[in-house]
Every structure is written in C-alpha cells, then in structure tokens.
C-alpha cells in the first residue's frame, strides 16, 4: 500500500482506504477500483492524494490469496469482474459477495486452469464458432407453453392427494401420513430429510408418523414438490442445459432462501422459501425443452451482447422464465404467495410482498455469484438497492450463509435429485 498523488493515479488501481471529502462524506470506499470517472470526482472535490493497494495485493491481503500465484489471481479477478460487471462494487455487501466469488474462482483455477468464462451449457468452441442467431422476435404464450410441458409427462396422483390433504383443514396428520406411506420413495425421502443436516436433530427418526409430526405439513409439501418437479422434468432431458447443474443451482437457491429467511424472525414459514427457491427457474426448463432451436440462438445472443439471459428471453419471447414458472406453480395448486415469489425472483419491486420476493431474489443472486450449479445465467444479477435496505443486508451474513449452504447441499441434493424414479 502506498500514498499516490493524483497525477500518478491510473484507472484500475484499487483504493486502500475510504476517500472522504472535507465534510467527511464518503466519496469512494476502500476496495473500489479507480476509474476515469472517479479521478474526475477526486479533482472536483479537491482530493490531492489517495492510498492505493499494491497491484500484488489487489483485493485482499489474506493469506490464502497471497499463496495463490499471481497469474491465477489476475485471471480469477478478470473473470469475476466480468461476471459482476453490472453490479455496484461500492456497496459493501456486493463487494463481499464479489470477494468470496473471486476467491472461489482462484481456487477453481488452481485445480483446473481451464475453468474460464464458459459454462458447460454450450461448449465454448461452439459458442465462438457459430454466429449469433438472428434477432427475430417470437412471441410466446405462457399458458400454451405450460400446457404443452404438462402434456409431456404426468405428475403422480399422490402429489395432488397430498397437496389436497395439506390444504384441507379437516385432514389429520395421520390421514396425511397414510397417503405418504403408499409411496415408498417419498416415505424414504421424508425420513432421509428429517435425519439430514437440514434439521440437525440429535435423535434418529425412524417412523413416518414421528417424522411428519416433527417436520409438519409445510415441510412435507417441500419434499413432495421437490421430488415431483425433479422426477417430472428429469425424464425430459435437453441438450441445451445440464440437468444436474440446473438442479444443483435450484437446490442451492432453495437452501439459501430457507437460510436467509431465518434471519428475519417474523418469517416463520421457511419451508415456503425452500420450495420457491427450488422452483424459481423451472420456467427456463420449460422454455429450453419446448423452444430448443430458438433458445440455442438466445444463449449465444445473450453472451455476445453481454446481457442477462432472462433479459434476452424477454426481448425475444416477450416474457421471461419467471412468468412461465409462476403459471406452472399455479397449475400445480401451490399457494399464490409461492407463485408470486417465482414470478418476482428477478424483479421483487414489482410485487406487493416485497420482503418475501426479495429473499428469493437475493438467494438466486448469491448462488449465481458463487457459481453453484448453473441455470444458464452467466452474469451475476444486480442487487436492487431496495433489497439491500429492506433486508438490512450486512456483508457479514454472506460467509456464514455460504458455509451453511456448503454443509447442507450434498445431503439435500441427494435426497431431492438422487433416485427420483
Ligand atoms: Fe431466474
Ligand atoms: Fe436462478
């Protein structure tokens, strides 16, 4: 770190300390990359000297980073900055998310130097060899697409019976247990989940009635929705999307939404957030499976124009996957609040229940930032400033949530995705 006169500052340097004006108002926080615009701001406010980090210590001086070869750090930083290009790194919460994501990328690059800009959704060479598709609009009707998807397979009857029983105030826990016990796979999954890190119970639960008494009917809905959705769509693979990656992204988002919801004591029904996270991108599966040729062009278009995939969907089809997912969840008789969370996971400001939608939105952004699984989105979606204030986001909450996700993910993934036949 060193003092640098304004004349010697060059864009790309990183501020080592906060820059304040004479009234103590923050002009730029430590960690911010210096741009041409920022240099002009310094001149306007009469800042003559700033502390900058040595390029070697670009983001953080932590030991792990310093042990990483410089070329790996530079590549990790380049990729992470590119993916975060629409985010405001001046926001401490966003910067912390960026920092964790950058460190993860550096670790990946050390193990596999070929980890780069490309997801395996489309092969890198194909992406660059073929020209972007024609920018022709093709209007899509959400209901039509959902009906078409629903005709491709059947949701087992037991799903509807359980949802009906959960929604029936007259049905007892024993009635519900009776329905569940008719499905061996589902019964096994209920027991697996109750005994997993998801609940961290001390005792082993070995009967269905006991399990249901412990987890409650909402949690049952979580398992039923998850297992049903995964087994329904698992049978309809697509060349365009890696299904394991897609469900890893969805299950991680579900876990993150559930964990984040527990930060807000008034949100008691954390299972609802799990289901919303699990199904938030399901509309994209329907789009990919039903519009494959057009969707292939869309992937390329979004990457070559450097725009969000959900924005490219809206541009081409007149709507994005969130609307299709919301309509599917209504078809499956899930509660309206759930459909709303799915519909608003990219734009929580458009809905009445801002707080709930903001949690799912944030969970999706965190999982995208950390590249856990892959739903096709390449750039890290932007955190709306209102989400930051509404959820009182504190940068110190990210690392514990990330650690917890890493602890729970393998277990939950196995339960939801493993052997769902
Ligand atoms: Fe999405
Ligand atoms: Fe997502």
Describe this structure in words.
- By secondary structure, this protein is mainly α.
- The chain has three domains: 1-58, Molybdopterin biosynthesis moea protein, domain 2, CATH 3.90.105; 59-117, no CATH class; 124-417, Orthogonal Bundle (Hypothetical protein af1432).
- The protein is 58% helix and 3% strand.
- The strands form two sheets. The chain has a two-stranded antiparallel sheet with strand order 1-4. A two-stranded antiparallel sheet has the order 2-3.
- Helix 8 (173-181) packs across helix 10 (208-234) and helix 14 packs across helix 15.
- The structure holds fe (ii) ion (2 copies).
- One fe (ii) ion binds at residues 249, 253, 280-281, 364, 375.
Question: What features would you highlight for this structure?
Answer:
Hypothetical protein af1432; 20 helices; two-stranded antiparallel ribbon; Molybdopterin biosynthesis moea protein, domain 2; mainly alpha; 421 residues
